[in-house]
Amino acid sequence: MSDFASRAIAQRPVSAFLPGASGITTAKISATNYLICMQEKPPEKTIEQERWPELSFRFLLSTHGSGREIRKFEKLLEKADVYAPEFVGLDAEDRIEIRKLSDNKVTLEEFLDKFTSKYEKYGAKKIFGAGRFFYEMVRSLAGSKKPLMFIDMPKESIESLADIRKLNDAAKQFEGGKFEQSLINLRKILQDLVNKNVIGRERFIVENLKENAGELFATYPELILKKRLQILITFGSIHTTLYHDIKRTFPKADVSREFNFMPYIYATVHEAARKLMFGKPLEEETLARAILGLILIIRILQKLQPNDSEAVALAERKIVSKLTIAEIKTISQRIGSGTPLEKALKEGNVALPATEEEFNKLIGRG
User: Fold this and answer.
1) Cα–Cα nearest to 149, from 31, 240, 228
2) Band of pLDDT at residue 94, cut at 50, 70 and 90
3) CB of 224 within 8 A of CB of 216?
4) Which residue from 148, 156, 132, 143 is spatially nearest to 64, judged by alpha carbons?
5) CA distance linking residue 85 with residue 112, whole number of Å
6) Most buried among 121, 178, 247, 269, by the most CB within 10 A?
């Protein structure tokens, strides 16, 4: 499923993703201060940048919504010298536990039981459920002895992020028949998410990346002996701008990226967010398709294909792309007057898949 949809029900510390833009206030915490506020003792020495090996950053961008995406990740993880995961909102204990998992000092079951219980109210048990991307990610990491570099915003900084659950407010307005208000609200919510959760969050990552890299070498001094160091970074597909920012920050480094699937398909709500990210006009029709598409993903499509986010995004695009803004408004009004979602869609001549077989037919899979 899309990054937005996979987090529209629950989450914050476990995996806040979204966009960030200029002109916002983001708490700046240096890597050293981060360790102090986390009550972790920073390394007594840092390794001067002149002594670093050549750096190679490899980005893997995905929806990180399903276990199908893990195949490419496993291959890249095996080749990487260091892994930098997307893990926003971690505290010192979390960092220690993840490193213990990699070092084979705790079992996968022990880690998951402790971590998902700690963040249960944020939906961790679902996010780390069997077959999901984050479950497969930590399963691959378990016992790998892979050095870890934590570059994402720590727990103390996440209050500067926007709450993705507000997308549900726009969805409720749409389902309440308040079509125009839902579009106005969706635009505001997406802009806030773009401003804070992409641009602001990425700014934090880039501003602290060199210091985090220096502390990586202090923590794993054996890495300094390498001539070339390959760092694997996994982030949500919305974060293409982070790739460009790191290229500018490390002009001498080899920085590359790839998507889990090609051609890559963004859900319509992601298309809307990316238009705001790059300052492009966001048409009302795109907003209308985005809000209906988000509802379809959460209410229907995700249930048919819970472990295939690529297929869910493709199905959503195929359904909403055929609808005009007038047709979508009528659907909203029907739902608002008490007509169930699926019946309102059927009355609007929208054919929905009811079985996995019909779902596969919709997206062109045999």
Assistant:
1) 31
2) very high
3) no
4) 132
5) 16
6) 269
